[in-house]
Design brief:
The complex is a heterodimer. By secondary structure, chain A is mainly alpha-helical. Chain A has two domains: 82 residues, Orthogonal Bundle (Arc Repressor Mutant, subunit A); 78 residues. Chain A has eight helices and three strands. Chain A has a three-stranded antiparallel beta sheet with strand order 1-3-2. In chain A, α1 runs parallel beside α5. Chain A is elongated, with a radius of gyration of 19 Å. The mean pLDDT of chain A is 89. Chain B has one domain: P-loop containing nucleotide triphosphate hydrolases (Rossmann fold, 3-Layer(aba) Sandwich), CATH 3.40.50.300. Chain B has a six-stranded mixed beta sheet with strand order 6-7-8-3-9-10. In chain B, α3 crosses α4 and α3 packs parallel to α5. Chain B is globular. The C terminus of chain B is likely disordered. Classes of the chains: A mainly alpha, B alpha/beta. Chains A and B meet through α6 and α7 of A and α7 of B. Adenosine-5'-triphosphate binds next to β2 and α1 of chain B. Chain B: InterPro entries: AAA+_ATPase, ABC_transporter-like_ATP-bd, ABC_transporter-like_CS, ABC_transpr_LolD-like, MacB-like_ATP-bd, P-loop_NTPase. Chain B: It holds the Pfam family ABC_tran. Chain B: Keywords: ATP-binding, Nucleotide-binding, Transport. Chain B: One of its GO terms (molecular function) is ATP binding. Chain B: This is Macrolide ABC transporter ATP-binding protein.
């Protein structure tokens, strides 16, 4: 699960304080594994160092949460690229796919198109594995099958999610 | 590569129910194309329009340069008989005929003499692992065996295009994949173009390319560079 990109994505909705980012991260992506504050701030300062966010204003007083973070063009471009490019089709990427779908809906991006792109990347990989299966030994075939069944599971998830995007949009964009 | 069969902006309704709303797809000679998409999206209707079984309300079907949508029924039926092959979800073998007669049927229908048709049909039995089953009737075959017989029938006349609608839909995964393996092997060997309707990704993965049908339209994903 990509914490920096997810935080950047959340920042693209609106400039936010670290606390708000943590709250939204935990609500949508944490799933019982809250992000430690320390990790939020260390991630944000790395993002600032790399020019992907800037600090817009600092409230008086002390403590880390005085700062409000704003995404830069560099940061926005990175989010855009992450959302648009298909993830390398490998087993167990549901959580990454999930985060991309939810963020795409939050940001009013074409989530269905991203899912289509992902489906076609998955099918492309499945064709390669099927070729290996048809040409190779039984051991090759069984290894290829292992990959194929996992990719198929992802694809089923993609179908189900694609069919329920409207409902999901209502839940993540109240 | 050249396009052998193509639908251009095809619309088709069953009474008030629109099934295709401007579907376009082009298939290259020798290509194996998977047609995917949700139930009711129009996959079978598209296949039937391409194969000249249904005539579009508007739009064009082009096969080998010929305007299929404008043909008379007799012309379309000889096209289906002489140039196309078919495999469906449930083999749809003729129960009164033996397995080998079923396979020979397309040859017999296009006027090939029994003496030539039956040996040609028999040759498919060993090729598809069906040795010894030539004289069985369809009720005496397992689902997988019947489907392989149906596949042999679809390919025996060396059609230019094989239309397959969920050809593995009634089979378990392993048997389904064996049928696909044989289908792809045989189609490649004789250069047959295949249009394969399936909603199963593992079956679609035997094709060269997939298109998605949604709400009666076709969207082809951009090809991903290998
Ligand atoms: N003979 C028919 N009479 C009336 N409506 C039909 C007929 N055949 C199909 N339809 C309708 O046309 C639409 C497209 O059907 P089609 O059979 O092409 O879908 P499909 O994608 O092949 O679905 P499935 O995956 O379930 O086979 C559907 O709304 C269906 O209800
Ligand atoms: Mg159908």
């Amino acid at each position: 699960m990509s914490v920096p990109l997810t935080l950047l994505g959340l920042l693209e909705r609106e400039p936010s304080h670290g606390y708000d980012l943590k709250r939204d991260y935990d609500a949508f992506f944490g799933r019982g594994k809250p992000l430690p504050f320390g990790q939020v701030y260390s991630t944000l300062s790395r993002l600032a160092r790399d020019g992907k966010v800037v600090i817009s204003d600092v409230a008086p007083g002390s403590g880390p949460d005085r700062k409000r973070y704003v995404i830069t063009d560099v940061g926005a471009t990175e989010v855009e690229q992450w959302l648009t490019q298909p993830v390398d089709p490998e087993p167990h990427l549901q959580t990454v796919l999930f985060a991309k779908v939810v963020l795409a809906l939050m940001l009013d991006r074409p989530a269905a198109e991203y899912l289509d792109t992902q489906r076609s990347a998955h099918l492309h990989r499945m064709r390669e594995l099927t070729e290996i299966k048809r040409a190779g030994s039984l051991v090759d075939a069984l290894l290829a099958d292992h990959g194929l069944y996992h990719l198929e599971a992802d694809l089923r998830w993609i179908e189900m999610t694609g069919a329920r995007l409207d409902a999901l949009r209502k839940e993540v964009r109240p | 590569m050249s396009v052998v069969i193509e639908a251009r902006n095809v619309e088709f309704s069953f009474g008030q129910t629109p099934a295709l709303r401007g579907a376009s797809v082009a298939v290259e000679a020798g290509e194996i194309l998977a047609v995917m998409g949700p139930s009711g999206s129009g996959k079978s209707t598209l296949l039937h329009c391409l194969a000249g079984i249904l005539v579009p309300d508007s739009g064009e079907i082009l096969f080998d340069g010929a305007r299929v949508h404008a043909m008379a029924e007799t012309e379309r039926s000889s096209l289906r008989r002489d140039r196309f092959g078919f495999v469906f979800q449930f083999g749809q073998l003729v129960p009164e005929l033996t397995a080998v007669e079923n396979v020979a049927l397309p040859l017999l229908l296009s006027g090939v003499h029994r003496k030539r048709a039956l040996p040609k049909a028999s040759a498919w039995f060993s090729r598809l692992g069906l040795d010894g089953l030539e004289q069985r009737r369809s009720g005496e075959l397992s689902g997988g065996q019947a489907q392989r017989v149906a596949l042999a029938r679809g390919l025996v006349a060396e059609p230019q295009v094989l239309f397959a609608d969920e050809p593995t839909g009634a089979l378990d995964s392993l048997t389904g994949e064996q049928v696909m393996d044989l289908l792809v092997g045989a189609a490649r060997e004789q250069g047959t173009t295949v249009i394969l309707v399936t909603h199963e990704p593992r079956i679609a993965a035997y094709a060269d390319r997939e298109v998605m049908v949604r709400d009666g339209r076709v969207n082809a994903p951009d090809r991903i560079a290998s």
